[in-house]
Amino acid sequence: MTRFIEPISERTRLLADFAQPVIVAMGTAGLTGGAMAAMGMIADGALRMRRMRTH
Fold this sequence. Notes:
Elements: H1 2-54
């Protein structure tokens, strides 16, 4: 059984080592994009409130 599992474990570890930077980059991009979208919504709301006050 060990002869069967060890090669699978080694291949899985290699794949995980290869994929980890991609997963981290995608997670960071998602967080950054979400933060930018939130800031855009806040800025849009502030601009609308400002327009309502001036008119």
